């Protein structure tokens, strides 16, 4: 059975490996570049993206991660993982952080603000319901979440989260963000489907 790699530098990697096990899928912790050769797909979990980037740089993982993505292997990024996969990130800490890239989008690192500004919202996802069955809505949970502000032409948007343009949730003297009417939730379609 092919293993799914889970980047295990910091963050929720244990939870992802446990979820894979419940599905009967072997999860493998990835901490070194050579370990990527033993997996066919990769999950980059949530966590603190700046810390994860520093650890990835320390372990010289960025070249191997970029090559893995460029080879077209399936990669899923949640929260900090999304930031890693974005081609462009704004709202970063001073000095920024390295990105793996490969997902044609602009992401705002912590658009929704602090932990106390977390929220849940019902999202309409008709394309998923059509392809996978089930209800046309999905309960989205936004906990110190990044926001996808723009996507390129090769990215399919599956859902949008309305954000009142008069209610910018994140501000910083170092970062100016644009006001938007919605935040995009997406999934990049690969050749083999979703």
TrEMBL record:
L-glutamine binds at residues 47-49, 109, 143-144. One of its GO terms (cellular component) is glutaminase complex. It catalyses: L-glutamine + H2O = L-glutamate + NH4(+). Its EC number is 3.5.1.2. InterPro entries: Class_I_gatase-like (IPR029062), PdxT/SNO (IPR002161), PdxT/SNO_CS (IPR021196). GO terms for biological process: pyridoxal phosphate biosynthetic process; pyridoxine metabolic process. Belongs to the glutaminase PdxT/SNO family. This is glutaminase. It comes from Populus deltoides. The lineage of its organism: Eukaryota, Viridiplantae, Streptophyta, Embryophyta, Tracheophyta.
